[in-house]
Design brief:
mainly alpha; about 180 residues
Length: about 180
């Protein structure tokens, strides 16, 4: 028994941090499930939250509509000849569009990187929950096997007792050693 405990301790020490944490929570009957998105979001800086909002807005139909509307207004205003700030071929507009794309691309990339980090955190959380569920299922199987073994032993004991009683009854009425007659 002591050798088995020593081997179990060695096995647990050989596990990773996540597995040891799940085993600890399993043994102490603590939940593994948690809101990993809220946990991640609470650690985000102002700049990260702002980048996510900019990326969300930049990838919306509202942005596309406003952007197309602004371009049409720019072209209409600058197509009026003498009052035009940026006459055709709209070099200033091209410069602003290039600057917008140059700024928007890294912001979107930052947001995608954070989303990938959230996805990894979710996957890690799913792994922990699945591992605990697997441990619970194994424990239930063990308990069911234990109950079945106890029931089987009890059934065998009852059957042996019935056999003894039947033998005594047969001996009492003289049915023990006589050959059966037809």
């Amino acid at each position: 028994m002591a050798a088995e405990n020593h081997n179990l301790v060695d096995e647990i020490r050989g596990l990773g941090r996540v597995e040891r944490n799940v085993i600890h929570r399993f043994i102490h009957r603590k939940p593994v499930a948690r809101d990993s998105i809220a946990e991640y979001s609470s650690q985000m800086t102002f700049g990260e939250r702002l980048a996510d909002r900019v990326a969300t807005f930049g990838g919306s139909w509202t942005f596309i509509g406003l952007f197309l509307g602004a371009m049409v207004i720019w072209i209409v205003i600058n197509s009026r000849g003498a009052a035009a700030v940026d006459p055709f071929p709209y070099i200033l507009l091209n410069l602003m569009l290039s600057c917008l794309a140059a700024l928007q691309a890294p912001v979107i990339m930052m947001s995608q990187n954070r989303q990938a980090a959230k996805d990894r955190l979710d996957a890690q959380h799913d792994y922990e929950v699945n591992l605990k569920a697997e441990m619970e299922i194994v424990a239930l199987h063990f308990k069911m096997d234990e109950l079945r073994e106890k029931q089987w032993a009890l059934l065998m004991e009852v059957q042996n007792r019935q056999t003894e009683l039947l033998t005594k009854l047969c001996d009492l009425h003289g049915y023990g050693d006589r050959p059966a007659t037809s």
